[in-house]
Specification:
This protein has about 200 residues and is α+β, with helices and mostly antiparallel strands. Strand 2 and strand 3 form a beta hairpin.
Amino acid sequence: PGGVWLLKMPSFYVGFLALSFLTTVTPMKGGLRIRETEWQRGGPPGGGSRSVMLSADVCMAEECSYVGECGVEVLPIGFDGLIGGDDVRQRAILSGTLFVHHNYRRQGVAQRLLQEAENRVRLWGLPELLLMVKKKNTAARTLYEKMGYRCVPHTKHHGDQICMRRNLFVPDLHTLISVLPKHTVVDSALSKTSSL
């Protein structure tokens, strides 16, 4: 019978097939392209030993428009994301800001940028990615928690920021999703209503 083969598959593969189906039936509006670009203002803010600036563009036919960016660099920092302390070693940290133009928010652009940053860090052979986020930025904190990031203990040296980290090699759903090929669809009609 036609559907019996599905019952014999491990539940992991059934979930993967369902995820693949959901991503392919989304109506096409505009494809998202993530590319490496140059750092603004003379290079990475911390002068890290390795770094990459990622830019997100929405592409319709041959025309692409900038919609967001994020940077990652490798710095000698502690487990808590601060320079100095007992556990200082080379760690990857989201550098600067994960930025998405307001017309393209809540469409998966920030997730894709962060997943691409995580993939770069994996290629560099580093096991974790740290990031700093303002305490009051609940939207960003919610996104990071959804993607598997956890808060590290807060100290007085963090000020109004919280350090979050994620182990990039733990075999969980977030790791699986971040290494799968992606096609993010965004509503590019919004870009015609305001300029970037």
